[in-house]
């Protein structure tokens, strides 16, 4: 037997309640009829305390009622051979495919839409299988199964008792071409395309239509720093960066004399928050900022709206970020001629847009030998998982508790009725 909610068994201490009540309760002294009270001295009625159990059957029945109720709340489950065979015959299946996510023909089958991310669909399918009642669990992946669509790490995250089966839905094309984003260069914006043909990958470029305000950063710097700022911008465009959407703009203050001057506001727009997080995780920027011996010592960089995105060797901020209306606001205390400035510009522009994903365009399938190694049959559940059992045996304990309640009622009523001899003596004396 196992208990689905074993912590409830602590309620068994309540079994002692009827015994303690029976011992500690005060009773009034009983009245006895006499033919005459002439020779009896008057005394006041007093309470008496029990020191022994005089209603042992009643106390035992009441304690048994509380024990049965506590056991019922704890959820007993008898793991019998018949029940194990029933679990072994039942199969719960999660099918991951490119179709519409829906329930299957029964509650034992459910389909999960991959939506281009097979690994995420597998995680959702495993989470659903964990809530299924005891049964053989199976995961079926129906997909073209291109390389990179699912990895050995994704398979390792599936519990060992869950069976895994693969089915190729369609054949992959021999070649595929797709857009690969727009980049900013020294000669203007460029559109790129990537072509996947077998195991080879090639990228082609074409000049993009000229657009105003292609460079998203508005730089504020002192006149003597303008040359260094322009050189940093030219270096960034020489290396090429992603072209962000036209509505994502940035204000950058380079070595400001008073960073409290910009109208910094807390961040509320999601794209600004995402950009700040990506900039803060730029390893090249963090390494360059850590080369500076000291950061900003004043309190202007530590206001409630500013968030540190790069720190110096002493831990103080070198660059901070906030919002300015619908724009990203960044202030850098590094000199304009320092390498931090071009690295910060590059990080800012690349953080404004997500790099295009070409994993879904892959044309090389996962080898059959690999899929065979990842496949495995489902195994019978060794023990039910607490929280997923669809039927337990608590109803028998509730039935026992109800029966004991009836017995307790009968015993209590029987003890209240006076005996035949007592009734006759009372009548004769009266």
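Q: What amino acid sequence fits the structure above?
A:
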């Amino acid at each position: 037997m196992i208990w689905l909610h074993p912590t409830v068994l602590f309620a068994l201490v309540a079994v002692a309640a009827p015994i303690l009540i029976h011992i500690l309760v005060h009773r009034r002294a009983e009245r006895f009829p006499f033919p005459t009270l002439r020779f009896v001295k008057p005394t006041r009625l007093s309470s008496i305390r029990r020191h022994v159990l005089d209603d042992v059957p009643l106390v035992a029945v009441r304690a048994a009622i509380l024990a049965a109720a506590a056991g019922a709340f704890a959820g007993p489950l008898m793991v019998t051979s018949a029940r194990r065979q029933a679990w072994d015959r039942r199969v719960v299946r999660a099918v991951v495919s490119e179709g519409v996510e829906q329930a299957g023909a029964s509650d034992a089958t459910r389909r999960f839409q991959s939506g281009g991310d097979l690994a995420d669909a597998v995680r959702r399918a495993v989470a659903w299988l964990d809530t299924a009642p005891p049964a053989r669990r199976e995961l079926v992946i129906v997909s073209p199964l291109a390389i990179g669509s699912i990895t050995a790490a994704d398979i390792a995250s599936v519990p060992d008792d869950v069976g895994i089966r693969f089915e190729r839905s369609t054949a992959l094309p021999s070649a595929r071409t797709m857009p690969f984003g727009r980049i900013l260069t020294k000669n203007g914006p460029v559109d790129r395309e990537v072509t996947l043909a077998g195991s080879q990958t090639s990228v082609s470029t074409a000049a993009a239509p000229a657009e105003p305000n292609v460079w998203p950063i508005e730089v504020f710097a002192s006149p003597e720093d303008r040359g260094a700022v322009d050189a940093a911008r030219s270096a960034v465009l020489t290396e090429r960066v992603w072209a962000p959407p036209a509505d994502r703009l940035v204000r950058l203050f380079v070595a400001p004399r008073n960073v409290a001057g910009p109208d910094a506001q807390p961040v509320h727009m999601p794209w600004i928050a995402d950009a700040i997080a990506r900039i803060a995780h730029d390893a090249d920027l963090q390494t360059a900022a850590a080369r500076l011996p000291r950061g900003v010592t004043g309190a202007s960089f530590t206001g409630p709206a500013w968030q540190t995105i790069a720190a110096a060797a002493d831990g103080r901020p070198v660059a901070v970020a906030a919002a300015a209306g619908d724009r990203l606001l960044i202030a850098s205390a590094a000199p304009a001629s320092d390498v931090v400035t071009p690295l910060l510009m590059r990080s800012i522009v690349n953080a404004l847009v997500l790099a295009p994903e070409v994993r879904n365009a892959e044309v090389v399938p996962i080898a059959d030998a690999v899929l065979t190694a990842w496949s495995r049959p489902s195994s019978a559940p060794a023990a039910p998982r607490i929280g997923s059992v669809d039927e337990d045996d608590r109803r028998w304990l509730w039935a026992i508790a109800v029966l004991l309640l009836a017995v307790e009622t009968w015993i209590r009523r029987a003890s209240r009725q006076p005996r035949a001899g007592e009734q006759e003596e009372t009548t004769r004396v009266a």
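Q: And what stands out in the fold?
A: The chain is about 35% helix and 25% strand.
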